[in-house]
Design brief:
The protein is α+β, with helices and mostly antiparallel strands and 350 residues long. The chain contains seven helices and 16 strands. Strands 1, 6, 7, 8, 9, 10, 11 and 12 form an eight-stranded mixed sheet that branches. Strand 3 and strand 4 form a beta hairpin. The protein is globular and about 50 Å long.
C-alpha cells in the first residue's frame, strides 16, 4: 500500500516578506525538506487562540490569566507575548497565511467553485489583504508553490488565473485504489506563525473494519504521525481544513468520522491511516474544520481572522523516558464564556 511509504510533509520553508514588492509567481515545488532538528532545550512554543462564545477574538489578556498543562501537570510559562496584528508594522507581520487549493481530492465542479471563491476572498476590500498570503496549487500534474508572499490580492488573483489545473486522471469514485492514489498525492505537499488554509474535502481516511495492518505497517504510520506533529509544531503551523463541498457533504458520515481519531496516538499499536487525515491534523494543530457552509469565501476569511490577534506561550518540556513519548497539552483561562484553541499535544524525546 503506497501510502505507508509516505512521510507527511506539509511544510516548505516560506519566503520572507522582503519579496512582497516583487510580483508573485508560482514555482514548481522543490524537493521534500528534511525534518527540522528538535531544539536542544526542548522548548515548546504554543500559538494560542482565545475567543468568546460568538467566536470574537479576546484581546488584553495577561500571562497570569493562562494555565498551561502538560499531561495534566501545570507548567511554568517561560515566555508570554500578546500579538495584535493591527498594532504591528506592515513590514514585519507576525503571521503569514498559506492557501492550499486542492484540485486532486475534489470533483471538477468543486475545483471550479473553489477557484471562484478563492478569488472572491483575495479581492475583498479592493484586494488589500490584511496579512501576507501565499498560494499553493495542488493538482494531478504537480504542485505549484508561489515564490514569496503578497498583500496584493489583485496580483494573487491574476496569478491564480494564469495557472490552469490539469485534467484530472483520478476521481472520488475509483474505489480503494483511487483513494490510496489520492492519499499518496495529498501527503507529498510545504520563525513566524503560519496559518495554512487547506481547501479540500480531505483525503480518504483509508480506515475501516476490514483494514488490517502488520506491525511494520503500523510502525511506519506511527513514525509519520510523529514526524507530522514535529514538523507542524516546529514550523509554527496552524492548519485549517475547509471543505468546498459545504452542506452538500454534511450528510456523509465522512465529515464527522474524523472525530474518532482526534486523541493523540501513544504507540504504533494504536496507529491507523486515519490518524493522518487532514481534519485530524487540523484540529490537533489548534486549527479548525469548516464543512458546514456553502459560502467558501466567508469560511476562508473566518479562518484567516485568527491572524488578527493571538497569544504566544512557551515552556520547557521535560526529557522523555523513551523516544516519541506522547504528551497531551491544554491551555486554560479562568474566565466564563472563553474558548481556547492550541495544539493538543507533542512527542517528547529523551
Amino acid at each position: 500500500m503506497r501510502f505507508l511509504r509516505l512521510l507527511l510533509v506539509l511544510l516548505l520553508p516560506l519566503s520572507t516578506i522582503s519579496a512582497q514588492n516583487t510580483p508573485p509567481q508560482l514555482q514548481p515545488r522543490p524537493a521534500t525538506p528534511s525534518v527540522p532538528a528538535a531544539a536542544a532545550n526542548q522548548q515548546i512554543i504554543l500559538d494560542v487562540q482565545v475567543t468568546d462564545k460568538s467566536g470574537a477574538v479576546i484581546r488584553g489578556l495577561q500571562k497570569q490569566d493562562f494555565t498551561l498543562l502538560d499531561d495534566k501537570q501545570p507548567q511554568n510559562i517561560v515566555s508570554f507575548l500578546a500579538i495584535d496584528a493591527a498594532a504591528v508594522a506592515p513590514t514585519d507581520p507576525p503571521v503569514e497565511i498559506v492557501m492550499v487549493v486542492d484540485a486532486v481530492n475534489a470533483s471538477p465542479q468543486s475545483v471550479s467553485y473553489e477557484r471562484g471563491e478563492v478569488k472572491k476572498f483575495l479581492l475583498r476590500d479592493g484586494g488589500k489583504l490584511p496579512q501576507p498570503v501565499s498560494l499553493v496549487v495542488f493538482a494531478d500534474a504537480g504542485t505549484k508553490v508561489q515564490n514569496g508572499s503578497s498583500r496584493d490580492g489583485n496580483a494573487l488573483a491574476s496569478l491564480y488565473d494564469q495557472y490552469e489545473t490539469g485534467v484530472r486522471s483520478i476521481n472520488r469514485s475509483q474505489g480503494y485504489y483511487g483513494a490510496a492514489e489520492r492519499f499518496d498525492m495529498s501527503l507529498k505537499t510545504r520563525p513566524r506563525r503560519k496559518l495554512v488554509i487547506w481547501i479540500s474535502p480531505g483525503w480518504p481516511l483509508l480506515t475501516g473494519p476490514d483494514t488490517e495492518l502488520s506491525h511494520r505497517d503500523a510502525k511506519q504510520i506511527f513514525n509519520s504521525i510523529v514526524s507530522a506533529s514535529a514538523l507542524l509544531r516546529q514550523a509554527r503551523v496552524t492548519l485549517y481544513s475547509v471543505d468546498p463541498l459545504g452542506v452538500e457533504d454534511t450528510a456523509e458520515i465522512r465529515t464527522s468520522y474524523y472525530e474518532e481519531f482526534l486523541k493523540g496516538v501513544t504507540s504504533p499499536s494504536r496507529a491507523v491511516p486515519a490518524d493522518l487525515s487532514l481534519q485530524v491534523l487540523a484540529v490537533q494543530s489548534g486549527g479548525r474544520v469548516a464543512n458546514s457552509s456553502n459560502n467558501l469565501a466567508a469560511e476562508i476569511a473566518d479562518c484567516a481572522s485568527d491572524a488578527s490577534a493571538f497569544y504566544v506561550l512557551s515552556f520547557n518540556a521535560s526529557r522523555a523516558d523513551q523516544a516519541n513519548e506522547y504528551h497531551s497539552l491544554e491551555v486554560k483561562i479562568d474566565k466564563p464564556g472563553v474558548k481556547v484553541r492550541t495544539r493538543s499535544g507533542y512527542y517528547a524525546q529523551p
